[in-house]
Q: What sequence folds into this?
């Protein structure tokens, strides 16, 4: 095959002093941090949908992306050729993983049978390329939101046939993920939500969603797929309200319908901010519940209120993200998946390299800074001391479940007033973080 990126060799680590825009300044894959290589900590993944299918179109204009290897057709040979290009890109970049939706990799046919056949034909090439390059599948997923049949959602559609169609799609995509040795499978509820409650039986729709996920769990068992299931929270877009609106809503839903043991969360930065939260907040909610699985790494724009899916370059963002990830024991099955797209104005193929190199370097720095903060210990020590009143005396009694309201009343009647609290020292802590940035 003719190289799609002939001017680019393997992207190498050249260190912080390098001025080479096509080299890593901070991502040294073999470097050890907290006993593990950067490669194993970060488990970077490239997404197929934005990187190889993004056209750059927006509601005001046509696509702008120059992708000379792509003939623009919906043919299988074009899809197979694109897959080979994708692997050239991912392996030159040095990312160990990738992720796809079924419909990104292979075109929809005239019926389900033909569509499944198309997916198999491209999956064959994906498998060959995975073997050739050593790049692995972090997770697969289904696009059950683009086709007009999903106008009212997939598993939450008012149309039972659409539920059935989506089930076939997930069944197939899960089987292909399994065949490709995928380490996970993600459920993002594309249009699982509503535009207006006037036409919506929300309770029934949520029950259908739960039913759908239970069927997926059963099928996973039936085919012996051992990968991790993820739910990806997002509060809106494309619908006004998505049922998986944020980490807390997802956890509540999973608990209510007895699904929690089967799922972890895939937390995406721009979805967190759309929900009115920080990424760190969402990671902490997931982590505290033992459900932090993977992340979709990107960022929004401070001044734009939608899902802009930009590449993450803020060192504060990556530092806070990695502080939470390390706190909860690091990635096991998940990784840092760049669910991000180059800007419409960044239309040359080489921009794909700049974007990913920048994101990988930003995360490598975030990881090293987070590890340095943890090694220094002052931040953790501060938080520990802040709760010292819970380590002995009345606090320890409450935590141990050995104090009733009556006991607390007796305690406080004797004492008369609560002990003085200490300062929260937010500014001091922000300055402390800046010592490391
Ligand atoms: C949509 C989004 C999806 C999921 C996978 O906002 O993030 O691409 O990551 O379906
Ligand atoms: Co995502």
A:
């Amino acid at each position: 095959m003719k190289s799609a990126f002939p001017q680019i060799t393997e992207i190498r680590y050249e260190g912080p002093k390098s001025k080479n825009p096509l080299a890593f300044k901070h991502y040294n894959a073999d470097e050890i941090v907290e006993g593990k290589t950067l490669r194993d900590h970060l488990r970077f993944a490239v997404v197929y949908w934005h990187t190889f299918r993004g056209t750059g179109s927006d509601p005001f204009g046509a696509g702008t992306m120059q992708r000379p290897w792509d003939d623009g057709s919906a043919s299988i040979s074009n899809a197979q050729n694109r897959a080979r290009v994708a692997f050239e890109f991912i392996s030159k970049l040095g990312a160990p993983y990738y992720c796809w939706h079924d419909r990104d990799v292979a075109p929809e046919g005239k019926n389900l049978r033909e569509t499944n056949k198309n997916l198999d034909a491209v999956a064959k090439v994906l498998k060959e390329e995975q073997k050739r390059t050593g790049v692995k599948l972090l997770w697969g997923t289904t696009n059950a939101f683009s086709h007009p049949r999903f106008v009212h959602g997939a598993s939450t559609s008012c149309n039972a046939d659409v539920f059935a169609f989506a089930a076939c799609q997930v069944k197939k995509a899960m089987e292909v993920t399994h065949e490709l040795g995928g380490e996970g499978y993600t459920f993002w509820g594309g249009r699982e939500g509503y535009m207006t409650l006037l036409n919506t039986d929300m309770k029934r729709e949520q029950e259908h969603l739960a039913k759908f996920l239970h069927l997926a769990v059963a099928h996973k068992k039936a085919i012996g797929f051992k990968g991790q299931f993820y739910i990806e929270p997002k509060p809106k877009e494309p619908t006004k309200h998505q049922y998986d609106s944020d980490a807390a809503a997802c956890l509540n839903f999973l608990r209510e319908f007895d699904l929690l043991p089967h799922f972890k969360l895939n937390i995406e930065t721009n979805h967190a901010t759309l929900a009115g939260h920080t990424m760190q907040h969402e990671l902490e909610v997931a982590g505290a519940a033992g459900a932090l699985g993977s992340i979709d790494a990107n960022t929004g724009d401070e001044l734009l209120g939608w899902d802009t899916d930009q590449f993450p370059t803020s060192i504060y963002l990556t530092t806070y993200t990695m502080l939470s990830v390390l706190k909860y024991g690091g990635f096991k099955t998940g990784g840092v998946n760049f669910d991000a797209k180059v800007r419409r104005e960044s239309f040359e193929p080489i921009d794909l390299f700049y974007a990913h190199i920048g994101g990988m370097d930003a995360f490598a720095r975030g990881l090293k800074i987070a590890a340095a903060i943890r090694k220094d210990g002052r931040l953790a020590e501060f938080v520990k001391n802040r709760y010292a009143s819970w380590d002995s005396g009345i606090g320890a009694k409450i935590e141990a479940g050995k104090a009733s309201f009556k006991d607390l009343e007796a305690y406080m009647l004797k004492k008369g007033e609560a002990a003085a609290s200490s300062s929260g020292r937010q500014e001091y802590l922000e300055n402390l973080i800046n010592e490391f940035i």
Summary: The pocket of cobalt (II) ion (ligand 2) is lined by residues 188, 232, 268, 296, 339 (CB under 6 Å). The chain has a mean pLDDT of 98.
